Amino acid sequence: MDRTFERIPSGCAISGIMNVAGQRISGEKIIASISLMHDRSNGLGGGFAAYGIYPEFADHYAFHLMYQSERGRTLTEEFLNKHFIIERGEPIPTRPVATITDPPLLWRYFLKVPEERLYKNPEPVDERDYVVEKVMYINDNIPDSYVASSGKNMGAFKGVGYPEDIGRFFRLEEYEGYLWTAHGRFPTNTPGWWGGAHPFTLLDWSVVHNGEISSYGINKRYLEMFGYKCTLMTDTEVVAYAVDLLHRRHDLPLEIVAKVLAAPFWKDIEKMDEEDRKLYTALRQVYGSSLLNGPFSIIVANSKVMMGLNDRIKLRPMVWGRRGDFYYMASEESAIYEIEPALDEVHVSKGGEPVIVRLKEGE
Amino acid sequence: MPEGRVMAMEINAKGMYYRDLNNLLREKVAEGVTEFTLQGINGQRYLGTGLKGKVKIEVYGTPGNDLGAFMDGPEIIVYGNGQDGIANTMNDGRIVVHGHAGDVLGYGMRGGELYIRESVGYRVGIHMKEYKKQVPVIVVGGTAGAFFGEYMAGGILVVLGLNKKEGEPLTGDYLGTGMHGGVIYLRGEVEKDILGKEVAEFELNEEDYRRLNPLLENYANFFNVSLDEIKKVPFKKLVPVSHRPYGKLYTY
Amino acid sequence: MANLIPPRFKVVIDYEKCRKCKRCVINCGFGVYSFADRVIPDHKKCVSCQRCVAFCPEEAITIIENPNVFRPNSYWTMEDRINIMKQAGSSGMLLTGMGNDRPYKNYFDHLLIDACQVTNPSIDPLREPMELTTYLGKKPDAVTVKVENGKVKLDTRIAPQIKLDTPIIFSPMSYGSISLNAHKALARAAKECGILMNTGEGGLHKDLYPYKDWIIVQVASGRFGVNQEYLDHSAVVEIKIGQGAKPGIGGHLPGEKVNREVSETRMIPEGTDALSPAPHHDIYSIEDLAQLIYALKEATNYEKPVSVKIAAVHNVAAIASGIARAGADIIYIDGFRGGTGAAPTIIRDHIGIPIELAIAAVDDRLRAEGIRNSVSIVAAGGIRHSGDVAKAIALGADAVAIGTAALIAMGCHVCQMCHTGNCSWGIATQRPELTQRLDPDWAAQQLINLVKSWSLELKEILGALGLNAIESLRGSRERLRGIGLNDTELAILGVKHAGR
Predict the structure, then answer these.
(1) Cβ–Cβ below 8 Å for C127 and B246
(2) Closest approach of chain A CAs to the CA of B64, in angstroms?
(3) Among C119, C161, C465, beta carbon nearest to A285
(4) Phi and psi dihedrals of B216, rounded to 5?
């Protein structure tokens, strides 16, 4: 594809629902929530991440693939066959929707990593690193192919169109998940690039993002130093990779990851007690290139957690609320009320202060 | 239409697109309707925008962004929470929100009044300004987020901090940063290090109470709160120390 | 035959305005003026330092370029011809001061900075927080933490870091090449601005000891003034390998400049030449550099970052990588426009590469090798204004160093005669009647003003870029565009052409 554009600016709407007891609900609600914010998108991108939707393949990496050509599919399937055990491969079910035109070939594969693959090197390879490397390889090297998602028991469904139309196209009402996030996109040009829609994912991480990351240039170069390939022409993918680097590879707690992405100001670090001051000073010294500068509100999720985060001077909106075990996050409060009129609590988020919701233990 | 006659109507706006709703409102106002009750509001933007004169709108639900943007006279009462951008560049009128509200309220507001029963988000009262007899007012019953009164050039901001939790600050950081006109009345104390460098804190004088008291009375009346309770805590005021804080910034 | 060489400048005196106050006679460090009934200039001695012009109360003096025209020749410039005449008459190497003044391509002026419009907002730097704080030093690849009683605590030992309030420091200029008053002004300004001054290789005068937390002390090939006490009075220790104005070249401070105080500071006898060998004779290879770096770390108990200063030469990227791997905490790169107190003209004008290309090449190489975090980059050599600072940082520098700009702030008019020791402005001289002209308090305030105004401008640039911390600009070449550059140049700089 034409990658003259390194990055396409876009505005957006985001929404997320999580049941912390693991209770699964259909895709209807998240569609209703995101579609209320119709005017925040312009029909050039919509998408959903859904967790808990493949219980029968819970231990398999679920790869959602987008192909621009049959050749891409042939090459990718060859590649997958070589590096994985393909338990099942099938087209992702869709229904015709008048406004959704020219979709790519959409396939999904349930994969396992052949164990011997992890021991070929002198040092054993982390299975997740192995998967990440293969995802990066496909996105970067196999023509006409793009991995939309690669986590276990989850999937990303996204494309060019309004989110509610994308949701119907992918028949999301037929899926059940305990965690859903959604995105409606307002990009400023029209390359018709399905891969450019949100969410962006890596393993079971997904990110939906409203705003524009002004520090994209250095975030990208920093992540490239750690082997990530930023090829998707959008600033949002750097968020997914940064979270993967900081949380999974550098083993930082999610709360601390949030404080790297939206770092406290030096003047506020000065006021901390000595121990915190040391920690936060070190974080900014070491991870300055991971600071996401510029306006953003994001919902980052994985199988166990949903985190809402705003930039440190809060230039993008976010509201979160709760009703029983259901937690909601959205760009507009009305998008929550649309699906849950009687909230137990509702709050306007603060800049740089993450809202983290975790699956209850043992669920 | 005879002078002084009130024509009222109720609209069930559930699921209604904002453009259709606002068109309907403008049409009905032109026909002489002066009081509206809007039921089932959720997320419709720009309510009250483009309306002039003596019109009263009661809103049940959560109106969308830019409620009352560029509004010039009407009164809007919201029974629910507000979102972002309320009273954006508003010229005249009154908005009363029986709940909390989001960010960037009263941006560039030149006149009229905004009362929020509970707390508000970031950058409320940003670049509010007064001109001749127009003095915009925002009264916040709860607490305010960071950048409250940023670049404020005129008008009155009030934060009451009612029902605030122990240890919860009255406002966020960067209070009155870039403020160069108008006044902020604070019910209670704030940490000095959150103040913008352009402002200083002072005691209220008689003139201040003359301006503040009617606003507090309004708040008490609108939300059925005891005025005595509000007045139990002493007020401080923030005003800019210079109308031209950047006079020495440039060289020629 | 001396008449072969025409004067470069003409001193034009308006005798109708002249009150014969003789201020010009007193002020000229180069002996241009004599007085006999009226002021008489010797045009040949004039270097256009502008001191007399600035101090003439009647504005009666104008210095013009000699209008006498050699036959025009676009190949044999007037300067080339005069230099040949000088050498034919003397058999000496041409000597000069300040930085390369030849019209080589200037990459800073072929780079343009981005700004936000609509899709992301610019930020108001006057009302919203805007951070320029920069830490120089070696950073680990990752931070490790431990959780104790629910509290997250730092578990990584972070190597020594130096905090700068703004990413601009003063470049090394030795006491000897410049006056003690100039050194004092630099130290005071560094403290006030929360930045660093650099001793250069001439040792540290005891009057500057109170400023030790804002001082980089240099260890150069001559090892002047280097002892434990010297190392102790510093924030950073810097090994000087090379200088942009004279890469690969040593130098010497002539004995006549080594007065009592210079002698004490350099710890050499009064009146002797202070020789700086071309190389460090304990560094003939990269592993020797590592040996010296760790010797200095041992001497300073691993409490101070060790910087290595090199000139930007062709293979700068590989050299920088070697320096990072040798254990340096900071790499200071001096581009070919960097200044000097004295250098052979032919060296100054023909050796080295532009700092813009050097920053890009070094930053790229360190990233490709995954070791960019392990070292900070300070870039110098021709930083003229905050626009250059922003561009250097966007290309990949952590901070910049300014020398010539700092001298100009103290009164220097860039006459390029530092090597003569006659500086009429009292900066690049040790002549007491000249050095007393520079009031260190005034000069410090001038420097403080300059750093503060550049910092304000940097905040405006960041605000326009929609950024509120300098680290978000550092290495963010996406925010730069080239103009009038070819594909190779763009590829080296890692920027797209304007319009893309």
Answers:
(1) no
(2) 7
(3) C161
(4) -65, -40
Domains and CATH numbers, chain A: 10-358 (3.60.20.10)
The whole-angstrom separation of Cα C446 and Cα C185 is 9
pTM over 0.80: yes
Q: Which residues of chain B does A334 touch, with a Cβ-Cβ cutoff of 8 Å?
A: 42-43, 61-64, 83
Q: Where is C215: in which H helix or E strand?
A: strand C215-219
Determine which helix (DSSP H) or strand (DSSP E) holds A21, and give its type and residue range.
none
- With CB atoms and an 8 Å threshold, state whether B178 touches C129: no
The Cα–Cα gap between A12 and A299 comes to 12
Domain ranges of chain B: 100-240
One-letter amino acid at B226 equals S
- DSSP annotation of B144 reads B
What is the ipTM score, two decimals? 0.91
Cα distance from A332 to chain B (closest Cα, Å)? 7
The helix-helix angle for A216-224 and A236-243 (nearest 10°) equals: 40
Distance CA B115, CA B107 (A): 15
Residue C468's identity, in one-letter code, is N
Nearest to A351 among B45, B120, B122 (CB): B122
- All domains in chain C, ordered by first residue: 2-91 (3.30.70.20), 155-497 (3.20.20.70)
Identify the CA nearest to A215 among candidates A312, A306, A131. A312
Give me the helices (H) in C411-466, please: 432-435, 440-464
> What is the total residue count of chain B?
252
Q: Which residues of B touch C128 (CB under 8 A)?
A: 147, 150, 174, 177
| Chain B partners within 8 Å of C126 (Cβ) | 178, 246, 249
SS3 C302: coil
Instruction: Output the CA angle B114-B119-B122, nearest 5 degrees.
Output: 85
CA dist., res. C357 & res. C343, Å (int): 23
What is the distance, to the nearest Å, from the Cα of residue A342 to the centroid of all Cα atoms in its chain?
28
Residue of C nearest to A188 (CA): C119
Catalytic (active site) residue A12: yes
pLDDT in tens, chain C (500 residues): 457 888 999 999 999 999 999 999 999 999 999 999 999 999 999 999 999 999 999 999 999 999 988 899 999 998 999 999 999 999 999 999 999 999 999 999 999 999 999 888 899 998 899 999 999 999 999 999 999 998 999 999 999 999 999 999 999 999 999 999 999 999 999 999 999 999 999 999 999 999 999 999 999 999 999 999 999 999 999 999 999 999 998 888 888 888 999 999 999 999 888 888 989 999 999 999 999 999 999 999 999 999 999 999 999 999 999 999 999 999 999 999 999 999 999 999 999 999 999 999 999 999 999 999 999 999 999 999 999 999 999 999 999 999 999 999 999 999 999 999 999 999 999 999 999 999 999 999 999 999 999 999 999 999 999 999 999 999 999 999 999 999 999 999 999 999 99
Cross-chain residue pair C119–A217, CB shorter than 8 Å: no
Q: Where are the alpha helices (DSSP H) in A247-325?
A: 254-261, 266-270, 274-287
Longest dimension (CA), chain C: 89
Please name the CATH architecture into which domain B100-240 falls.
3 Solenoid (2.160)
Between CA A247 and CA B43 the distance in angstroms is: 36
User: Is B43 in Cβ contact with A334 (below 8 Å)?
Assistant: yes
Show the beta-strand stretches assigned E in B102-214. 113-116, 137-140, 153-159, 181-187, 199-202
Task: Please count the residues of chain C.
Answer: 500
